[in-house]
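Help needed: design a sequence for this.
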């Protein structure tokens, strides 16, 4: 997970992310607001939390009836998430890998909150997201509004909501939500951002 503005400073490798997490808690510790706004409307099932960070979303989902697989490239982040889940008494399956590096199956919901996923090979990442969603399932993709990130970096280097909307609409998915949502976070590394673009899409 990242709340950073995509830029040259955004970590690229697992080692970079481990260093970024360092020895102190990086994020606010609260589940993301867009997740809380959207997911209670859905029937719990299986969910993949992409870029799970320190596990706040994964733990919340597990505590609300979801069967959770949480994925992050940083081993440091995953270990913090695992400890958080154990303290909360909820079951989460944890995986240390970059998105698309490991076959994890299909899920009723794939949640990607502020992912920092480089767009190296055309639409490959968009295709990986679509493939991870089970028939009849949904993708929840959230990132900061485009005017809060450098346009060149956002458009050329990282997968952003517009990439997902264009790809999924062309593939016949139903775009159930595509909206700007106010964001209020008082602490953690991403507290300076004030607006999110929230995309919720359902398979044909």
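Sure. Designed sequence:
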């Amino acid at each position: 997970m990242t709340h950073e503005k995509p830029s040259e400073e955004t970590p690229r490798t697992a080692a970079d992310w481990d260093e970024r997490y360092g020895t102190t808690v990086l994020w606010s510790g609260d589940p993301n607001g867009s997740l809380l706004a959207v997911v209670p409307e859905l029937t719990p099932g299986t969910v993949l939390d992409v870029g799970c960070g320190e596990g706040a979303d994964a733990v919340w989902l597990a505590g609300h009836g979801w069967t959770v697989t949480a994925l992050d490239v940083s081993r440091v982040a995953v270990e913090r998430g695992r400890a958080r889940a154990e303290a909360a008494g909820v079951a989460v399956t944890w995986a240390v890998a970059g998105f698309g590096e490991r076959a994890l199956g299909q899920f009723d919901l794939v949640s990607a909150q502020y992912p920092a996923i480089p767009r190296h090979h055309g639409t490959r990442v968009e295709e990986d997201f679509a493939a991870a969603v089970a028939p009849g399932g949904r993708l929840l993709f959230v990132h900061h509004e485009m005017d809060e990130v450098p346009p060149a970096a956002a458009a050329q280097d990282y997968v952003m909501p517009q990439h997902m909307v264009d790809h999924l609409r062309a593939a016949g998915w139903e775009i159930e939500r595509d909206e700007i949502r106010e964001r209020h976070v008082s602490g953690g590394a991403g507290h300076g951002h004030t607006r999110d673009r929230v995309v919720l899409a359902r398979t044909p």
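The CA atoms of residues 115 and 177 lie 18 Å apart.
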